[in-house]
UniProtKB/TrEMBL annotation, chains A, B:
This is EOG090X085T. PANTHER family: CORNICHON-RELATED. Residues 41-95, 171-260 form the DNA/pantothenate metabolism flavoprotein C-terminal domain. InterPro entries: CoaB-like_sf, DNA/pantothenate-metab_flavo_C. It comes from Daphnia atkinsoni.
């Protein structure tokens, strides 16, 4: 059993907690306590990629390809499905509601006249709709950000632990693209690597698999959904099944880099067959996002899980 | 002389041009031709970090720490100093004018009522000022974006070549944080590296120094300013001087990772002593940015260069 491997403990001993950690944990604690009192469901949505610094005075780092599309859109749909959401995201990655402004030019939407600054007529509908949605949900949304792998893992552990108070009302939706490899702090050079030294060899260690302690120790009662991103279709279902068998959590969502916006595979520990979600061409025409369907599907599974696990 | 080293040519042979390259080159060409007709100065401002993919179907990449603060603020000051600006920037890094909205919550600035969507009274002044500045300068600003090291180098070469028509009216301000190391396409694995393979060893090659062909072949008449970022103060001035001696361009701006927003050193090929620019505490209180002073200083040097090099 993966828990006997102590490497996850060593990771936390060797990598210091992030700046502002206690303040963040207090925010999370209060958010969970209030939700628990109201018997509200809470989804932890992790989103974006983690960085792995190559130098202690960091100039260079390894990053994972992730804009945060999956996480930020899913967070919106969880909010709309009645969940409160802790959005644990990579700093400057996409955020719920704000993501719709990316690529839009806000200064072209604003009309400046000598006595007034106004939203241009043709942008009022779109901007108003988004602002209204955001304003309606903002009290149910707690935004917490990270940059490095180590920051992320510290915050993940703490959030999962704070969510214990919610029992089976808690759902963990682990959409962040977490690095598999890192350079331990003790092996990092202090200063920027000089290019005059010629070609560069980097030796990266495996990141301990945190799903093992997460499922068993940090969030033993929560409904846990993880993602498996591959680029090779032949490995997808096998890898997703393997992850579920290894960590004993609830759902693995498998997706391919090139088709992840239109096709995913859900593997559930409670059912023998994988379920596919695929956007049809009419879905695409109507602007339906696959995360809407994923969240809708997960909510039903979470309902069942809650019915099976609630006490009293 | 560095030009005899053919490695920069080999780089372009081995790394294909980016998607949309010709469209971008056409935009740049037209922008430069129109500026040349009006005898306007044009600054090429490069900004943000370059990525180095570790896999061909890219999931992981090495990145350079850079939000694009230096480049995006400098671009504003060049515009205000009367330059037209080509802003060659990392996709999603900070942009002139828009950078001021980062960390601001646009949905909190908007007031939604049943019959109107408006800018809140207390945000009108700030938003109006920015929108007005942007709208005044937008025709003098050409935005071109890149992600990878290879995309950046292709676009840098092409832009420099198109700027030749401007002769000494052209200024190149190379503030992008360009990777020193990369993995040649031929040595990249096709699919995502599997973590089941154990620890990962990466072997990175040196990126050819493009300043050599840039100064000599691509932009022989432009006024060229490069940056040198270090984390070790004792290396700063030596490294800046070395760069100037090696490439024979005009100014190197040396800066340290930790003090780069308040202190830089300018080394000029025409003067024996380095010049320091340092923000005073009253500058900081008044919201003066160091890029304002850098651009002011460079404009004087460019004036002199132009006077010495213009023909006819």
């Amino acid at each position: 059993m993966a828990l006997e491997d102590p490497s996850w403990k060593i990771f936390f001993e060797e990598n210091p907690m992030p700046i502002g950690f206690h303040e963040n944990v207090n925010l999370i604690k209060e958010f969970c306590q209030q939700a628990a009192m109201k018997k509200n469901r809470v989804a932890l949505v992790t989103s974006g990629g983690t960085t792995v610094p190559l130098e202690q005075n960091t100039v260079r780092f390894i990053d994972n390809f992730s804009a945060g599309t999956r996480g930020s859109s899913s967070a919106e749909y969880f909010l709309e499905a009645g969940y409160q959401v802790i959005f644990l995201h990579r700093s400057k990655s996409l955020e719920p509601y704000f993501r719709h402004l990316v690529g839009k030019n806000i200064f072209e939407m604003i009309e400046v006249s000598p006595d007034n600054v106004a939203v241009g007529k043709k942008h009022q509908l779109e901007l108003g709709k988004l602002a209204e949605k955001y304003q309606r949900h903002r009290c149910d949304l707690l935004m917490i950000s990270f940059s490095t792998l180590s920051d992320y893992l510290w915050l993940l552990q703490a959030t999962a632990q704070q969510m214990q108070i919610l029992g089976p009302l808690a759902l963990l939706y682990l959409a962040a693209a977490v690095s598999d490899f890192y350079i331990p702090a003790s092996q990092m050079p202090c200063h920027k690597i000089q290019s005059s030294g010629g070609p560069l060899s980097l030796s990266l260690q495996l990141v301990p698999k945190m799903l093992a302690p997460l499922v068993t120790l940090w969030a033993p009662n929560a409904f846990i959904v993880s993602f498996k991103l591959e680029t090779n279709e032949t490995l997808l279902e096998t890898k997703s099944n393997e992850a579920l068998l290894k960590y004993h959590h609830h759902v693995v969502i498998g997706n391919l880099l090139n088709s992840r916006k239109v096709h995913v595979v859900l593997v559930d520990s409670n059912s023998p067959n994988a379920e596919e979600i695929r956007l049809s061409s009419s879905d695409l025409e109507n602007g339906i996002e696959i995360e809407f369907k994923i969240v809708e599907n997960l909510k039903i599974r979470h309902d069942q899980y809650y019915a099976d696990h609630k006490t009293g």
